[in-house]
Write a structure and sequence with these properties.
This protein has helices at 3-21, 28-37, 41-68, 77-109, 146-157, 163-172, 176-205, 217-235; strands at 112-118, 121-127. The protein is mainly alpha-helical and 237 residues long. The protein is elongated and about 65 Å long.
Length: 237
């Protein structure tokens, strides 16, 4: 390995770590959804890893296709920008939809009092329209199986913007082994950083007891996802 490629590989690892850590969209949606939907750590890790791999796959495929077709990788950066905008607005749309659904669930959870008169007596009781009809495994209308797939599709469409520039040097030298090495290092560090950050956040939140906010867990999750989408669209996360 040449000194230049060694430096590029180290840079790829550092950029992957910093880029992932400074981009809340890489981990906040998983933390928010895991808390709102009571996913276990194992399930959350599986979804995070699958989405992380999907997140990388699009940029890797685009970069390798550009190399194979002899397209200068710099000319592909505009396409990565287009994909970033698409992913941001999809995340915004999903966040808004989930926020609206969460508000509906919170409204149905609210307690209200019913009064009954019979045999000369009056009594009252509190209930919510959600809990009285709740199934033991799911809340009514809860899109259990759909949500992870929506997040996966958004992450597949979302690009890893730093990857294409990192591939330029080894590609220009026609060093396929260098291209694969840089891609592998960048990908592994990105996915591991996502997984570790999500795990640490979830373990830390276990110690936080916010009973009063539990009815609004889906609202908070939708708001977090919406904030990530807005951050990508407006701040370039």
């Amino acid at each position: 390995m040449t000194p230049e490629l060694t430096m590029l590989t180290v840079s790829a690892a550092a950029i992957a770590f910093v880029h992932t850590l400074l981009g809340p969209d890489h981990y906040l949606p998983f933390v928010a959804m895991a808390k709102a939907r009571n996913w276990g750590l194992g399930k959350t890790m599986r979804i995070t890893l699958i989405c992380g791999v999907g997140h990388l796959a699009g940029s890797v495929a685009l970069g390798l296709l550009g190399i194979g077709l002899g397209i200068h990788l710099a000319s592909l950066t505009w396409l990565e920008g287009l994909r970033a905008n698409l992913a941001a607005w999809l995340l915004i749309a999903f966040g808004l939809a989930y926020l609206a659904w969460g508000l509906r669930q919170a409204w149905r959870r609210r307690l209200h009092t019913h009064r009954h008169h019979h045999d000369g007596f009056t009594h009252s009781h509190e209930h919510s329209h959600l809990t009285e009809h709740r199934h033991v495994h799911a809340e009514p209308g809860q899109p259990r199986a759909l949500t992870p797939w929506v997040i996966f599709v958004i992450f597949v469409l979302g690009p890893c913007e730093p990857l294409i520039p990192l591939l330029m040097y080894p590609a220009a030298r026609e060093d396929l082994a260098g291209v694969l090495l840089v891609t592998l290092v960048f990908g592994v560090i990105t996915v591991l950083t996502m997984a570790v950050t999500v795990a640490v956040a979830l373990l830390g939140l276990k110690a936080v007891k916010l009973k009063r906010l539990e009815p609004y867990s889906h609202v908070l999750a939708g708001s977090a996802i919406l904030a990530c989408g807005l951050g990508m669209a407006l701040l370039g996360w």
